[in-house]
UniProtKB/TrEMBL annotation:
Molecular function as annotated in GO: aminoacyl-tRNA deacylase activity
CDD domains: ProX_deacylase
Residues making up the signal peptide according to the UniProt record: none
Ranges of residues in domain YbaK/aminoacyl-tRNA synthetase-associated: 32-149
Name of this chain's protein: Cys-tRNA(Pro)/cys-tRNA(Cys) deacylase
Transmembrane regions listed in the UniProt entry: none
Length: 159
């Protein structure tokens, strides 16, 4: 981090500190927009990458955050059952409006308002996991327990 941290990454770092987490945001020289890119840049398994995915309920247009293991796909029908109405993948404008982040850099915290959140149960098997930190080039390490605490999410099987 020789250069000053980018604004959104600094926001995530400040939010982590304000909420009492010791995690440090790391800015990478390679993109971490996809789970595969992030795992390669960090040197961890793809499954240890936290994908923050935003969905929208079809009937009420509510945002739903799914924090999924990088190796898993979300079963949208199952997610819709958990939410209580059908869901669709949100478009980039909806994602930015409800999270404050662009697709590829959505952090699991620091959103303008609390989001209904589901946590992939597969993430709980790891001691350390990595999440996006506001940009496609920034990440931070955390534990599954910290992820649960910061998101107040419900742990479920997402696939």
């Amino acid at each position: 981090m020789a250069q000053e941290m980018k604004a959104r990454a600094k926001f995530v770092q400040d939010t982590l500190q304000a909420q009492g987490y010791s995690s440090q945001v790391v800015e990478l020289s390679a993109s971490s927009r996809t789970a595969q890119e992030a795992a390669q840049a960090i040197g961890c398994q793809v499954a240890q990458i936290v994908k923050s995915l935003i969905f929208m309920t079809k009937n009420t247009s509510r945002p739903v955050l799914v924090v999924a293991s990088g190796s898993n796909r979300v079963n949208e029908k199952l997610l819709g059952q958990l939410v209580g109405e059908p869901i669709v993948r949100a478009d980039p404008d909806f994602v930015r409006q409800h999270t404050g982040y662009a697709v590829g850099g959505v952090a699991p915290l620091g959103h303008p308002e609390p989001l209904l959140t589901f946590i992939d149960s597969d993430l709980l098997q790891y001691e350390q996991i990595w999440a996006a930190a506001g940009t496609p080039f920034a990440v931070f390490q955390l534990t599954p327990q910290e992820l649960q605490q910061m998101t107040q999410g419900q742990v479920v099987s997402i696939s």
